[in-house]
């Protein structure tokens, strides 16, 4: 059944595996079970996938109900091609560790930059301290 | 608008962000049956905002009932259920009555009664149902639809109203067993048989459901149909559990439910299925509610867990899908088959939309018949169905829920003027259609049926807003709303005098004024461009008026461009030049030119040529002038030779008489160094040559003029140093022949090299 051709309706995506990117940066992978008019999603057998470099780790999360406004984008995952990836899956602990390390280096770089700017008398407000809206 | 929520107990009305009435709490207690009966009778007739029969507020519910206790009792009861249930076989009639109203009974009984649901199509139940008085047909009969007024929909249980889409799931959980309608038989009994639960279940505990999760909605009458459309019953989603897939009904349906579904010929009970493990895999395909649509007279094996359980009416009397149902018979059709039967009022829909909708339903029906004709293991057409088959959690979202969402989405697409609201979408699809039409004409390829989304078209309604007025009161209410905003601030616009401002301010103001003029002219332009389409859509008698409007707008545009000074010539180019300094202004002029008359357009061209160096300077950053080349070149083809001559003069800033001394010509240099300038120059020259060559018998006056100008032109061209010339957009081919008339061989070569007129040199 061709629901609403030419539009971005999610009805035809139901019961398919999707990758959902959230506004807070999380990546969720799960089966889309239910939607509503706000594109709130119900994801089943959800897995949160953390990517660091070429590695990734999956944290099983169960059922997610995602409020529509927090979704940046989502797309269907081709089950056949899913395993065809150059990325390497690692354990949860390892990926979390990698993520922590990555965050740390990022923070340190940021600090250095801010310091350098400060030395020159400039200050750039950090995006995360700005109000979202 | 409020729905009729009669006989609700502990109904808590809150407003969702959709401004709907959402019922989010209910208890198991209900009023005595007779009270409800009365309520039901008078249902559709009143138009009160307050549900006076709401027991929670006005009745016993407020006084003696305690929903919390009831819930606790119920929770306990659930554990004791297996014992209690066995009494309930064939108790359908009682069931319904109880479901409807007799909530004073002890919970065990009522719970067990809830278990045996009418959706299970117990013939005893159905017969019982038949004894109930038939619900009067609604006004408009089967023609209710999502767009119907509240009058019709009020009959529907729950806050389902035409304009208000209820937020989904909570409703169903909260709705009590007793719907506000009178006779029930042709109502969707599944809607009634919702669990009387006031709080969400504890995670991990079995759902408090009167209706087993797998039970299909029973669709009998339109209202219920609408209800389903508008308020889909969500299946209770259990907390994540490891998918114990091969246990068909184990934890999903209480054992009592399994045991007590009465068996019918041709109908397999769930319990049977539980004993036939082999069936587990196959039913899924058939169970896909999408595929079940239109299935009539067929039995579908219920699938394990979360499966909509569609049962068939007695094989003897499946009514043909197209007919009006003969009344509240033991008729179970699923939602989709109902649609054509009831011919839900699609008159408001676009005819193509209607057709499409019905087509789809037909297709689905056929599909299902095909699939189900082969039994459980129907032919599986694609891997998606395969996947669905293997996916035990598929179709958690029921078909009608999907329909509901898609209906909301379609409603959102309602528009009185799609070209205004959804311009790019409309244009894109028009283009696609033209393309495919063109392709079809060219090649006799297979016609690709590209399904097109037909959006609902809503007629424009003119509402004159009248502010609220009370009779007999003195004066008017000072009520301010969205439609009737009140003036908050008395802001008075004072125009500032010229002296007060600084130079900068003046400049800024002038620029702003120019910007405003550009915006206004652009709106006019967009309107004018749209006239063609409107012309095609309009009626015969409207057309002259349209044409007049269009002409008028074109005139205004031109006036805007040139700066209308009443009663004067247009002495100053300033206005136009200001517009041309702004990028948007240039693009706009390029778009306007095709609409102007030749004289007006020629005027614009001349002005441009006159001020070209200035414009070139201003365009250094934008580099948008070349966009004017195309309309200018079109224009040139219509210009007479006189104009071309004077144009050339302007462009090259040639002195008026040949005898005048030749000062340095920075004007020309600038022009030549600019892409646009050079291209324009070449175009003008080419045009002149065309005119010359095509019409040798032209009037000598013009000829002379042209010759003179050309002589001067060639002189100038020879004179200027070989500065870095711009690269013109295109080099007209006849320039060599042009120059050859006026200069000798040597100079011709010189000119050629200088202007790089010969292709080979480049």
From TrEMBL, chain A:
Principal place of residence: cytoplasm
SMART domains per record: Sm
CDD domains: LSm1
GO molecular function: mRNA binding
Keyword Zinc-finger: no
Keyword Nucleotide-binding: no
Keywords associated with the record: Coiled coil, Cytoplasm, mRNA processing, mRNA splicing, Phosphoprotein, Ribonucleoprotein, RNA-binding
Sm domain boundaries: 5-80
UniProt feature coiled coil, ranges: 93-120
Function: Plays a role in the degradation of histone mRNAs, the only eukaryotic mRNAs that are not polyadenylated. Probably also part of an LSm subunits-containing complex involved in the general process of mRNA degradation.
Name used for this protein in its record: U6 snRNA-associated Sm-like protein LSm1
Lineage: Eukaryota, Metazoa, Chordata, Craniata, Vertebrata
